[in-house]
Amino acid sequence: MDHLALALSGAGGVAPALREVADVTPGRTGRELATVAAGLASGQDEEAAWSQAPVRWEPVQQAITLAGLAGAAPAELLRAAAADLRRDALAQVEQETARMSVWLVLPLGLAFLPAFVLTTVVPLVVSLATSISAGW
C-alpha cells in the first residue's frame, strides 16, 4: 500500500499508478494489481475493476473511492490504511504469541510435574512412612 501511495503522490491517475506498482511488485500481489489496472485502463468503473481483486485489497479500494468522492489525493488515505493494517497485523501476532506461550508451557508442566512428584514427593512419603513404621 505504501508503494501505491507513493506512486499516487506523483502526477497521474489511479490506473497508471497501479500499473507502475504492479510492474515492480513480484508474485501474486503484482498480478492482482495488474488485473485491477487493466480493468481501469479498459474503461471499467472502479467497483467492477476492484471486484477482480481479492478481499484483502478492499481497504485500498475504499481509500481510493473515498478520495475520489472527496476530490482529494488518495495517497494520505492509503498511508493511513496501510498503518491501520500494520497495527492490526501486529496485534494479531501479539495475540497469537500469547496463545502460543500457553501451549508451550503445557507440555513442560506435564513433563516436569510427574518427574517432580516421583523424585521429590514419593521418596519423602516413603521416608516418612518408614520412619513412622520403625518407631511403632
Describe the structure.
The chain is mostly helical and 136 residues long. It has a domain at 2-94: Receptor-associated Protein, CATH 1.20.81. The chain is built from six helices and no strands. It has helices at residues 2-9, 14-24, 27-41, 46-50, 58-70, 75-135. The radius of gyration is 30 Å and the shape is rod-shaped. The mean pLDDT is 86.
Compose a concise summary of this entry.
The chain has helices at residues 2-9, 14-24, 27-41, 46-50, 58-70, 75-135. By secondary structure, it is an all-alpha fold.
Radius of gyration using CA atoms only: 30 Å
Q: Flag low-confidence runs.
A: none
How far is the first residue's CA from the last residue's CA?
82 Å
The helix-and-strand class reads mainly alpha
> What count of helical segments does DSSP give?
6
User: The CATH topology of the domain at 2-94, please?
Assistant: Receptor-associated Protein
Task: Give the biggest beta sheet.
Answer: none
Q: Give the overall form.
A: rod-shaped
Overall average pLDDT: 86
Tell me how many strands there are. 0
By CATH reckoning, the class of the domain at 2-94 would read Mainly Alpha
Relative helix content? over 70%
User: Which architecture of the domain at 2-94 does the CATH hierarchy give at level 2?
Assistant: Up-down Bundle
The sequence of SSEs as H and E is: HHHHHH
Strand content: under 5%
